[in-house]
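During the first year of the project, the team set up a workflow for recording each protein of interest as an amino acid sequence followed immediately by a discrete structure-token representation. This format lets reviewers and collaborators read both layers of information side by side without switching files. As required by the reporting guidelines, we include two representative entries from the current panel. The first entry is reproduced here exactly as it appears in our internal archive.
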Amino acid sequence: MAKHPYFPLDLELPGFVPNIIPYETILTVFFGSSALVVIFMFLLTGRFKYLSSVERLWAGWWMVTGIIHFVIEGTVVANANFYKDTTGNILNEIWKEYAKADSRYATRDAFIVQMEGVTAFIWGPICFAIVYGILHRKAWRFTAMLLVSLGQLYGDVLYYLTCFHIGVEKHTRPEPLYFWGYFVGANAIWIVVPVTCIIYCARHVNSAVAATG
């Protein structure tokens, strides 16, 4: 049986199979695909002449975050044995790599599974609805954007807090790539962007209320 790279090193993961795809390729596929989705959406929404550039960027964000939530995060919820995969499936490879930053995904930590379940199967579909709402300028789009952004922010804050409460060194490798790159950097995206979105939506809602007196 191959020895896994996850912390703690004495963690038992019967049937573990190391990454088949190099981490450079995994990162290129993940971030490259995400960028392509945003670019594609920005170009596609150019057909909607009444949308501002900011609205078109938001459409791109909600499409890519919806795909990440529903497809990628949905995979880790549905597949408890991702670390045993021998096929080189890119979704399983992503989680084999990310688990180096947080082995709780491999051990099926209760908080992780439930939090990711909500993110994947509740926030994910709503993200796609938000894209529709933005494209057709539905009045409810701001409410939906606020709701999901608050949910993302709350989930990410709890993710960090539970990790540090337990002791980050217990399940996160100390190398900069895994701690600063994956654990801190990648997750921080879902703090920075949701906060930005909350401010954006609040301003529009406040302006609308002020206009009605």
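The second entry, processed by the same pipeline in the following quarter, appears below.
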Amino acid sequence: MDARHVVLMLVGLSLLSTSDAVLPGNPQVIDMTYTFDGTTIYWPTSKSFRLTNVFRNYSAVGFWYEASEMEASEHGGTHLDAPAHFSRNKWRTDDIPVERLMGPAVVVDVSVKTTGNADYMVTAQDLQDWENTHGRIPDGCLLFVNTGWGKHWSNKQQYLGTDTKNTSLLHFPGIHPDGARWLVQNRGMHAVGIDTASLDYGQSTNFDVHQTLFGSNIPGFENVANLDQLPTKGAIVYALPMKIGDGSGGPVRMVGILGNTVGAAGTAKPILGLMCFLVTLLFTLIL
């Protein structure tokens, strides 16, 4: 084996490394989850997030140590609604196939229509109008509705319509029942998310949208952050909830990836390296 072969094999081996290939192409990453703390907005009748400090100090032998206990309702902050939340015998949190919680994202922006109308509901016509401009909602996508309500997140009164436990005072946009029915009957998205406290609008009492989507095992995401930073099409979203056994939902860490999403799992470069290595090895054996 001469020097040229040695150099080629070393190049191939170097390309096998995945340490810098987790997100090749340096894509933009959008954090789509609100921080969980004492200010996180929850459904008015649900238990809010509470973090109790167990220990935060130097240990008796000198090293630093922190540990806490947390408690909260499943449904608050940026979270998953599992289909079982409103549909008997459908997927609970730990039943949902993980591939249903990630994929190409499309964003239906109705923020102009919600201005001055906190009770706006996204209709089937809104969805069809979006398709007339942007093309068919693709099968296997995560469909997000941007109502523009994220701008109110830090103010509970504005975000929910009330800072009391009286749910009759809730006012925020959501999806119209006919919009949900049209999606279930005509499109094959894997999940539906929204930047408000509920898929149904604030004044809903029957939660028809929840019932319709979840009856078809289509999970939901609520209180999604930074939807205004996501493009209409072209992003990949990963929405991974805490895997709660028998749960009806749970907190989600959601991120959007914009830009070069090919090989986002760190596979493109290792495969190229392996090919270079094998070709070099073949030539070495022949020559």
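For the second entry, the following points were noted during internal review. The chain has seven helices and twelve strands. The helical segments are 3-15, 111-114, 124-134, 156-160, 177-186, 208-215, 268-286. Both points are flagged for discussion at the upcoming steering committee meeting.
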